[in-house]
Design a protein that fits this description.
- The protein has about 190 residues and is α/β, with parallel strands linked by helices.
- It has one domain: Vaccinia Virus protein VP39 (Rossmann fold), CATH 3.40.50.150.
- Helices cover about 35% and strands about 20% of the residues.
- The chain contains seven helices and seven strands.
- The chain has a seven-stranded mixed β-sheet with strand order 3-2-1-4-5-7-6, covered by helices on one side.
- β2 (about 90), α5 (about 95-105) and β3 form a beta-alpha-beta unit.
- α2 (about 15-35) crosses α3 (about 45-55) and α2 packs antiparallel against α4 (about 75-85).
- About 35% of the residues are buried.
Length: about 190
């Protein structure tokens, strides 16, 4: 089912990648029954979240490093780490039960590091791409991650309808695209002016 869902959205992956995504979905489903990590309560909904996480690979430049802010149950970072095998992915999550899940779910992935911290307290060299899904507004995300960015850093924020109000005040400060897919708006910031 996941393979067909991805292919119908022009995301062609290897069987190994599909298997790893399925294993992640199953692990999340099992943990979620006990720990309530996400509102995605069934495999079909988890698959839709995987698709949502991966859709941007159809339009972004592939980064060498990703910071995911407020990783929660692993969306979008875990699916991105599975598919972008040569990209170093750092998941920043302050809540202990989510950190425990993310560490367990990423055991087989050599390109993942889970950091138990608030992003504003993190120390790291600048990332190529900073992602976030359903954490806070765009202006706040830019401010909280400023110390982890360089002039070359790009941003990918997974947003709902409030995005359009958020970018009104930032229009003259950002070079960005908004890609819309169903109920999701992907804000891809190429640079800050």
């Amino acid at each position: 089912m996941l393979k067909q869902l991805l292919q119908s959205n022009d995301i062609d992956l290897s069987d190994t990648q599909i298997h790893k995504l399925e294993a992640f979905a199953q692990t999340l489903h099992e943990w979620n029954k006990i720990h309530n990590l996400t509102g995605a309560k069934d495999i079909e909904t988890i698959h839709k979240n995987i698709l949502d996480s991966l859709y941007p690979i159809t339009f972004i430049e592939t980064p060498k490093s990703i910071l995911d802010v407020g990783s929660g149950a692993g969306f979008p970072a875990m699916p991105l780490a599975i598919v972008l095998e040569d990209t170093q992915v750092v998941l920043c999550e302050p809540l202990r039960k989510r950190v425990s899940f993310l560490k367990y779910a990423s055991l087989s992935l050599n390109n993942v590091e889970v950091v138990a911290s608030r992003v504003e307290d993190m120390e790291h060299e600048p990332f190529d791409l900073i992602t976030s899904r359903a954490v806070t507004n765009t202006q706040m995300l830019l401010e909280l991650t400023n110390h982890l960015a360089s002039a070359q850093t790009r941003y990918l924020f997974y947003k709902g309808n409030r995005l359009f109000d958020e970018v009104k005040s930032l229009k003259n400060q950002l070079d960005y695209d908004i890609v819309q897919k169903q109920q999701r708006n992907y804000l891809y910031i190429k640079s800050q002016k």
